[in-house]
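So, could you explain this one?
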Amino acid sequence: MTNEQINLQDVKRGIDYIGVNVVFYCHDGKGNLLLHRRSAKCRDEQGCWDCGGGSMEFGETFEEAVRREIYEEYGVVPDELVHVTTHNVIRDNHGIKTHWVAVLFAVKVNPLQVCIGEPEKMDELAWFLPENIPEDRHSMFDIHFDLVKPYL
């Protein structure tokens, strides 16, 4: 291998190239929003409350990625998906520039079927009315929530 060749194991999504992820705000259809507290093992913003999200896999549609991620994170199959918008997330994460394309969804789920599906990434799972959402939120939460709110 020459110096000009790239070792794909060293290439980081969202840093070395634009990452694409799905972001979903799960609700129960009655005004309650499902959030989780990010664990110490998360890539960034540990301890913050956040909606769900994850990177797309090669060959997936946006909707397939949302369904997969919701099942992985919350152990539930979505009742209803609404694609809201697509949004650039360009930010500085502790001195490292990152660029993600976030595909936002409002998703109705059955609250009786929800559980923590990825305990290594989530410390807690809870339902909130919008006016009671904790203040320690992911840095992109409010921007994305404002876009999704009319669809909840």
Notes: The chain is about 15% helix and 35% strand. The domain at 14-151 is CATH 3.90.79.10 (Nucleoside Triphosphate Pyrophosphohydrolase). The chain has one domain: 14-151. The helical segments are 62-74, 141-148.
